């Protein structure tokens, strides 16, 4: 899956969740301040993203997933651990183990 | 006239001890009852983000209950039965000498009979044999099974009901019991909080809510750390607490030992969010003020807080804000502790177990440590928190409890004066 497709899919998931036009959602949008997601809504969104990309997001990673771009970059890192440095080696390891 | 409402008996099942003396000894030592969940037989813990809980170890119902009684109810109601039995014995109340219609039972339970609930649902979906659903399934999962069985065990025919408001259930039960006696509807109310739902589905649900601690899976005893800077979520617990509440007139007539007085109660809703508290803490502050006023006191009279303090990042900080709003500069003069640091979050039992810790603090002059309070968090900086025992002559205390569904409870418990 290309990085562009990942971004598109995440924006689509967000648009579905928020029931708004995907084009109105920009990468620099802050999930809480711009899109109005409270902490529970972020958890619900990540639950959908975990399913869509077959990943598990550890609790300690949640804190940095504050903007649309941050979520997209995070998922890209998680799906391509070999290509880029991954912030948390433990999550990469657990993913390998799963496969 | 019923007079005041007093506490005359205590009973407890907790991850740090079965029975009040074992519990209190461990509480004063600051022992953590949190350990690794070894397995949710038949499947392993690998898929769970959190792997620790405050489980009650070594509880064999047949040791305390006759087999028929024990078999007909779920683990949480077994806890309730045993805790109520201890509390009644401790109170010295003889049901044979009481008018049974003047003895009520009010239970707080958040989750109810989930052990059997999950088992039966799993079996039905796996084998699709509806005729094999256990005949006791409905009475067991009905949320008032504990209040029913406790009344049956003791022949208590007075008001009998269950309060279910998630994590604040048994704080509300305490308040309701106080009101029930004040209104003259009962002389005695056996008040219980109970929950035992560290089960595969419920535990997974709390993991998915991202509410549980996940950083201390390798050091379970450090996981529940209310107000500490390194806290990262609550730890599920299980247990039951029972308090015999009665009118002071009734207690004096039978020359009962009086531990403390339950003097005030407030119940409010934030009408805000299912799981998130209002971050400014104003609703919690209002709840505390109302309870203090209900007791006929002012914030200046309160000297100890048994905090709700679940060890979540937001929750503890919001409670601290609320305490500052109510007590202002006096907030640093209050003794404060978090019983959940010892036993985890026992959900529906939390108010009753915190209530017992509060009653014992008033009765003994000792405030149990807040385990794992090592590094103060600027967002929760309160001078009255300590990882050691605090000796304090407590005149009046406040018990806080907040629950999902945007509800808050506060109960004032004070030294009894005739």
Summarize this structure briefly.
The complex is a heterodimer of chains A (99) and B (418). Chain A is mainly alpha-helical. Chain A is 54% helix and 0% strand.
Report on the structure:
The complex is a heterodimer of chains A (99) and B (418). Chain A is an all-alpha fold. Chain A has four helices and no strands. The longest helix of chain A has 16 residues, at 3-18. Chain A is globular, with a radius of gyration of 13 Å. In chain B, strands 1, 2, 5, 6, 7, 9, 10, 11, 12, 15 and 16 form an eleven-stranded mixed beta sheet that branches. In chain B, strand 11 (304-306), helix 11 (313-327) and strand 12 (335-337) form a beta-alpha-beta unit. The radius of gyration of chain B is 20 Å and the shape is globular. The model of chain B has no long low-confidence stretch (mean pLDDT 96). At the A-B interface, helix 2 of A face loops of B.
Give the SSE order of chain A as H and E letters.
HHHH
Number of helices in the DSSP assignment of chain A: 4
> What is the number of strand segments of chain A?
0
Tally of alpha and pi helices of chain B: 13
Structural class of chain A: mainly alpha
Main beta sheet of chain A: none
Binned, the helix content of chain B reads 25-40%
Question: What is the β-strand count of chain B?
Answer: 16
Strand content of chain A: under 5%
Distance between the termini of chain A: 17 Å
Poorly predicted spans of chain A: 84-99
Helix content of chain A: 40-55%
Question: What is the N-to-C order of secondary-structure elements of chain B (H for helix, E for strand)?
Answer: EEHEEHHEHHHEHEHEEHEHEHEHHEEEE
Average pLDDT reading of chain B: 96
Counting copies of identical and different chains, the oligomeric state is: heterodimer
